[in-house]
Amino acid sequence: MKIRLPSGKTEDIDLGPLTVEELLRELDIAQGEVLVSRDGEIIPEDTILNIDDNIRIMQVVFGG
């Protein structure tokens, strides 16, 4: 699957099927700090990802 990381870097990862939660754990990314989208739609952490998916991981910014 193609994954666009918060840094803007794109990686091809040969994993799947796995959940968003498992992917973030594999990439050592804290789940509470990012949003994950597939084909432009935000998806929950229990969504099953497949090897042919295009995934984008976006950093969440907190502030006040």
From TrEMBL:
This is Sulfur carrier protein. Gene3D superfamilies: 3.10.20.30. It comes from Methanolobus profundi. It holds the Pfam family ThiS. Signal peptide: none annotated. InterPro entries: Beta-grasp_dom_sf, Mopterin_synth/thiamin_S_b, ThiS/MoaD-like.
